[in-house]
Request: fold
Amino acid sequence: MDPSRASVNVQLDPTLLPRLAARVGASSFLTAHRRVDLSKKGLHAKDCQAVNSLLAQAISTAMHFATAEVQRCRFSPTPDVLISLTLRENGDLGDEGVRAAVETLLESSASARVGSLSLAAVGAGDAGVCTLAAALTDAHCQLKLASLDLSSNRLSAVAAHALADALATGGSTLVELNLSRTAIGDEGAAALAQGLMRSSSIAKLDLGYCRIGSAGVRALAGGAAMRSSLSQLSLHGNQLHGGDGAQAANLLLVSVQTLRYLRLGEMQLGPAAARVRRT
Reply:
């Protein structure tokens, strides 16, 4: 037999790759990303409640397949499942559904992390969002969101105050927050400004169509100027008018040096809009 064609059976030590990974300082965890999309499913609160709910089953299924994928790796890493969950446009969820979803996510947080959560247009009011904000504010809570979409809900300044407390928490992980098409107004913007003063994580904030006027924008400028993380801010469709509105927008650009994107369209700034620029 030609020696070059001979086959050799070699059985590797199953602990070899894990030991090599440890030797070179490789992480013992491997993150698997999964998207759970339950948008436009006509969900009600009962679909998010309890262990056997539709939401719990969807998360469990995503975790199962992600974990199996990680466990196939030769160096035997510990699975770290990161989930992006969207429940948008399930208008019948309401506050009860939001509270049920939060409870289900908290129960699942021991084995899976939810990094992104969309609750856009789910019929939520201040009460449901306050429950979510309270969970995010709790230092012992395992729900660590990087992205949160609460747009197109029935929110007022009350919800903004609760979310501002979450932003101000030292352990806050929120990088993106979308509150567009809500009614937080100037009071809500001023509350968020207080949160921005103490947040080192938030980089993208969408407050389009939130009934915010010049006073709210000036408050945001003051709050955002105290921290260097905010880089994108959307204020389109708000109540900025004429010269006063342009001055407030200019204050943002001058005060917040880290701001790289500022959306100001769909407002009646008139000729004054031409004077909105970074100086």
